[in-house]
Specification:
Length: 302
């Protein structure tokens, strides 16, 4: 019998935390790395090995999942002081789960491969609940050998893996388009719920009707519930969509694409962030629209 597989998860936010726990449930020995000591303590209590640095996390493992926020953080945890490349053995598979511009993903992948590593471009979708249950969707691209080596680890965290190409890049491209739709749907949800509140419609009743009607979407079902409850605890924060829709804008400009709806949604997220709502749940963009029209949403009283 072979040894229990070893994996690392760098970045134990809502998605990385779910991936780490899913790996533990599947029998992996898991190193977890995060800048928050209280999160590392919880991870240790859950059965993982808490690591203060990416270098410590990558030491002796077969696969490294990277779940930090943006490409700057990815570069830091991989190539910076006490980064993962200081200890990772040649042939280690790095799964880049961070949402990044495709061009950034390709550049980082090339640096990893030049250092003797293997890479799967592996952005994910499904939210923190599916991450916890090991049922996320992975939009992946990379070599056959990288997929073969990471197969068991990917199966542990996901319900569906789409293989989109044999080189890093296509995974990030598809995730970018997903985020375009997600951001626009959140903005549309905020607009619809705010208009309903201004018109005096009971939001819970409206939500119950629309979630089973043609105007619904996954984002409406999920974020609409947050607005009805007045609960803006961040599952995915406003600032995440400032970043992700910013990627849509920059890539559209680079390729000559036209994205007017994404641009409008981005402006709303930027306005919410500048108003101090950047770390609240992304549904908090509804507060900006409510303030503009004098509507009162749940959680805004007083």
């Amino acid at each position: 019998m072979r040894d229990i597989s070893k994996a690392a998860v760098i970045g134990l936010g809502s998605m990385g935390w779910g991936a780490a726990l899913s790996l533990l449930r599947a029998g992996f020995a898991v190193n977890g790395c995060d800048v928050r000591h209280e999160v590392l303590q919880r991870f240790s209590e859950a059965g993982g090995r808490a690591c203060d640095t990416p270098a410590a996390a990558a030491d002796g493992v077969e696969t490294v999942f990277v779940y930090v926020v943006n490409n700057t953080q990815v570069e830091h945890v991989l190539f910076g002081p006490q980064g993962a490349l200081e200890t990772a053995a040649a042939g280690t598979v790095f799964l880049l789960c961070t949402t990044m511009a495709p061009s950034a993903t390709v550049a980082i992948s090339e640096r990893l491969e030049a250092a003797g590593m293997m890479v799967v471009d592996a952005p994910v979708s499904g939210g923190h609940v599916k991450a916890l249950s090991g049922e996320i969707t992975v939009m992946a691209s990379g070599s056959n050998e990288a997929f073969e080596r990471a197969d068991a680890a990917l199966d542990a965290i996901s319900a569906k893996i789409f293989r989109l190409g044999d080189r890093p890049g296509p995974g990030s491209q598809v995730k970018m388009i997903n985020q375009l739709l997600a951001g626009v749907h959140i903005a549309a949800t905020a607009e619809a719920m705010t208009l309903a509140a201004k018109a005096g419609i009971d939001l819970k009743t409206l939500y119950d009707v629309l979630r089973v009607s043609a105007g619904s979407s996954w984002m409406f079902e999920n974020r609409g519930e947050h607005i009805v409850a007045g609960d803006y605890t961040p599952r995915s924060a406003v600032d995440i969509f400032v970043k992700d829709l910013g990627i849509v804008r920059s890539e559209a400009e680079r390729t000559g694409g036209v994205t007017p709806l994404a641009e409008t949604a981005l402006n709303l997220f930027v306005e919410a962030s500048e108003a101090g709502l950047g770390r609240e749940d992304d549904a908090a963009v509804a507060k900006i629209l409510a303030r503009k029209c004098g509507a009162t949403l749940p959680g805004m009283e007083g």
